[in-house]
Amino acid sequence: MTKTAKIVYTKTDEAPALATRSFLPIVEAFTKSSGIVIETKDISLAARILAAFPDFLSDDQKVTDAIAELAELVKQPEANIIKLPNISASVPQLMAAIEELQSKGFKIPNYPDEPKDDSEKEIKSRYDKIKGSAVNPVLREGNSDRRAPKAVKNYAKKNPHSMGAWSSDSKTHVATMSKGDFAHNEKSITLPEATTISIVHTDAKGNKTYLKEGLDILKDEIIDATIMSKKALLEFLEEQVEDALDKSVLFSLHMKATMMKVSDPIIFGHAVRVFFKDLFDKHGKTFDKIGVDVNNGFGNLLEKLSELPEEKRDEIRADIRYELTHGADVAMVNSDRGITNLHVPSDVIIDASMPAMIRTSGQMWNAEGKQQDTKAVIPDSSYAGVYSATIDFCKKHGAFDPTTMGTVPNVGLMAQKAEEYGSHDKTFEIASKGKVEVIDTNGNVLLSHKVEAGDIWRMCQVKDAPIQDWVKLAVTRARATETPTVFWLDKKRAHDAELIKKVNTYLKDHDTEGLDIRILSLVDATNFTLKRIKEGKDTISVTGNVLRDYLTDLFPILEVGTSAKMLSIVPLMNGGGLFETGAGGSAPKHVQQFLSEDHLRWDSLGEFLALAVSLEHFSIVNSNKKASILGETLDDASDKLLENRKGPSRKVNELDNRGSHFYLALYWAEALANQDKDAALKTEFTTVFNALSRNEDTILKELIDCQGEPVNIEGYYLPNENLISKAMRPSDSFNAIINS
Ligand SMILES: NC(=O)C1=CN([C@@H]2O[C@H](COP(=O)(O)OP(=O)(O)OC[C@H]3O[C@@H](n4cnc5c(N)ncnc54)[C@H](OP(=O)(O)O)[C@@H]3O)[C@@H](O)[C@H]2O)C=CC1
Ligand SMILES: O=C(O)CCC(=O)C(=O)O
Ligand SMILES: [Mg+2]
């Protein structure tokens, strides 16, 4: 049976989804004559909610379950998927999306915060599968290769982004735990044989609760378990709030509550309660009564206040104001609107927030809207050292210089829900004092921890095949680039010690003659890499899943100003290709700007790069020569776009995302018209190029004249298709050429 050759394009959320409405019609127009079918899959938060509740919808409202379809596809060799960033929803985002869908006539149930019966429990469990990072871990059936292409790096060297200066007396620092956290409590083993395990909690009286049963573990899989002690966490947080006040630095919390959707909201909640300690001491009972849950942020408390009588509400608001003015200063997400770092767990996400701070002289914004030195609180110490070492380096050497600095590509272990990013279904907030054990089918206790009520226990897994694939990818990249390659692994950490044994074994499967491959601890790897980067030298980082995420925002943001310009390739383990567009998120701030002044500053460069590799992959798999020509010429177009600085500007009434798409189309058509490998494409695109260049002035005028006024697309999570398409394709002259 032959399957139709196609490229699957994901439809997502927020800024990238807006951009798709402008860019996808161009892609379809350019690839149509080459026998390439582009199929879209809607993986937006709204579509994922609707797909989970068919029994609540009328037939015409039902949607297919795109995630389930893609989960199958990624295991097939013919998979060729362009994946744009999507929302990993925190609870406040999930609730907002539900409310919007309900207001649009979809009779889906409310999110039951505290389910009262089995039916509510079932509904909550459906929503919990959508919550947080529910897309990426499913699609990522391969490890990742993220890097800044040469043209992007050269562009940044010639057109450096702004970099805030660093002074040696900056008070900015990272605060992390020195005991009792996940890092210090970790235990890890490699299973010599396949087995099935249970996770069992035994309380002080000997009563057993099965937290999980029947989990199959493969031969040679690494499993580890650890706890975050509640007591140690609270002590640590109290010290940090006090210290922030003493040192007059901003208290800021950097977590990954979206991806680490079970553990990190709990930690976030503790931080909110500790920061507003007096408030909770005084009004805790009232808050319990109205169902305040600050695991969803301080914003949840503010919202719930509306349920109180006016007098009580005013009293609490006055107390909040008092604490905010007399307690430690808190970092602000939006000082104009009074939104703090503790309001919404998805507003400050560590991979983007820490590099943004480092780029801004180590400062964040205070309540007056001014920059101030910061205490970056990262409770678990597993990875915090990377940021403290980087901050120390900047204090000593000053800010990095984008015109001369080297680059740090990443090879990341990610496949099959590797490590922490696959631990959500094995993470538990412990109900009572006792122990938690991982027990195999023969009753052997594999891992055991003493626990107290409120501790967070979790188990992570990483399978052997992904590790072998990861080591191979690292050697391939090292060989292709002849660049020193560092595995960021700490022999003192239990999990890493197991991984190091495997790395040493599997490196022997490859020809590493003449390659510089090392294994260094996180801090040593950071210092080694930063020293080289400063000297203009490149270093490949080979890391586990969390550091993959952190480093592929950190280095791009320092080197080229944004992770949007990264090439993110995921060679799928069964032969297919998943091409992620950039290494960042869905930029909610860009949507705010677009809605208020019709200017979209989102940069689609990552998408252009991803599509070019996808076309190349398509051409090899389907022996389609034209696809390869389309890919090559698309890369030429991206180079020219950078060279001519036709990326989107941040300011209204200048070239935006739509304008940059016009130039991409113009240069792509030009490159196709200039090539001589395929006569039909040459003829077709000579006409297109002539039409586009003849109309350049008119089109640009139309794309800029439309800006400046608010836009209404009737929704945030499920906007009106016609309105959004109209807003994103405002140039009739351009549309006429593309449509024909
Ligand atoms: N792969 C995925 O699916 C990912 C999804 N996410 C999700 O995205 C949302 C936002 O996450 P957040 O951590 O704020 O990170 P973002 O990467 O969305 O935003 C951080 C900032 O980076 C800049 N930026 C990012 N991408 C672009 C781009 N293409 N063009 C121009 N600037 C860009 C913007 O800076 P400025 O405002 O200065 O212009 C933006 O405000 C969350 O829902 C999160 O879960 C996050 C990471 C990856
Ligand atoms: O899936 C997510 O929530 C975020 C993923 C991410 O940040 C990354 O892969 O860089
Ligand atoms: Mg990331």
UniProtKB/TrEMBL annotation:
GO biological process: glyoxylate cycle; tricarboxylic acid cycle
Keyword rRNA processing included in the entry's annotation: no
Enzyme Commission number(s) of this protein: 1.1.1.42
Binding residue positions for NADP(+): K83, L84, P85, N86, I87, S88, N136, G585, S586, H590, R601, W602, D603, R650
Binding positions for Mg(2+) per the UniProt entry: D351, D549, D553
Keywords in alphabetical order: Glyoxylate bypass, Magnesium, Metal-binding, NADP, Oxidoreductase, Tricarboxylic acid cycle
Manner of cofactor binding, per the entry note: Binds 1 Mg(2+) or Mn(2+) ion per subunit.
Residues of the site described as Critical for catalysis: K256, Y421
Keyword Oxidoreductase: yes
Cofactor names: Mg(2+); Mn(2+)
InterPro entries linked to this entry: Isocitrate_DH_NADP_mono (IPR004436)
GO molecular-function terms, A-Z: isocitrate dehydrogenase (NADP+) activity; metal ion binding
Family: Belongs to the monomeric-type IDH family.
The name this protein goes by in its record: Isocitrate dehydrogenase [NADP]
Source organism of the structure: Winogradskyella thalassocola
